[in-house]
Amino acid sequence: MKRHPILLTIFLILAGISACIDPFNPPEVNNSDRYLVYDGYLQANGTDTSWITLSRTQRLQETFKPMPEIAASVSVHSASGQAYTFLPDPVQPGVYYLPPADFNRAEPYRLSIKLRDGKTYESSEQHLLISPDIDSISYEIKGNDGVQVYAHTHDPAGKTLFYKWTYDETWEYAAPMVSMLEVIDKKIVPREISVFKCWDDFRATNINVFTTATLSKDVVRFQPIVYIPISTNKLYWKYSINVKQQALSREGFDYWTEIARNTETNGSIFDPFPSQVSGNITCVTDPKEKVFGYFTGGVTKSERIFITEALGRSPVCFGVDTMSGRDVLNSTMLISNQLPFPDGRYIVAPGNCLDCRTQGGTLNRPSFWR
């Protein structure tokens, strides 16, 4: 009987706490406005194509892909009046490209965007920044768990100070079994194109920046680029990573640092609260309109390495069987090979055992592969 007052007290306390909790729905979360988002980089080395993407913001609870901004007029203008016009990508809506062009690195450039509705946007003038060379890309095997990739660089002149890295990774893999035969026009014939080996790739979207402004020398050592878990099996056959390095202005560094702080924190109460990120692009026709993105450009330096440590496990196949020729013609199973006579039956298996494309890659061997 003595426990009842205690339980009642606890219940009243909890009820009081819950009654004090009101839902918090800030207007930024529920705002239905779709602001323009710019993402891109002006490649100024004369050999690389420049790519930019224009899209619209979306609310936090929306899970679909951002809406692309199509049919826009996009150009870059030098301080002396030279104009460079971007072309719309015919395959990717909202993506625009500028073929390799020679830029005068001694003068600044600004971005100009005109949308279908007549709204125009411009960036502040930005000087093109040349990244120092990447000294090397190294990696370290972390026990049986994964591989950590690092970048190393330095600026002998001590003028870069602010760095940003991105990367593309490509890996080779194979199906568990080899398919020697296939069915064409209801006939079993030798397979002309092998589907045993494939290549897949991934382009990083995370934000990776660092500054040496507080260091005694403009030197970067062991900058983490990516951690590759062995469980992904990307490292079992052959893996390659192409690390790209760009120099930033202090303002550009502050922008990307703030973007990273707002998008890549864990969401705990100890994380910094999201802030209003301000780039260097404004709406000319409506100065009060928010615009997201930071226009910059220069010379990107890159370095590619291959990793052939054979880390991972051999792929396993389930569902291997044998069939007669007649059954094979009426089956969705793929053919590995034919058993020796006099049996004459065929070794068959599901597509994921014999066709590497079922795992997401393609048969196209990259031009840089070795």
Automatic annotation (TrEMBL):
Which keywords has UniProt assigned to this entry? Answer: Signal
Task: Give the matching Pfam families.
Answer: DUF4249 (PF14054)
Signal peptide boundaries:
1-21
Protein name stated in the entry: DUF4249 domain-containing protein
Q: Which organism is it from?
A: Ravibacter arvi
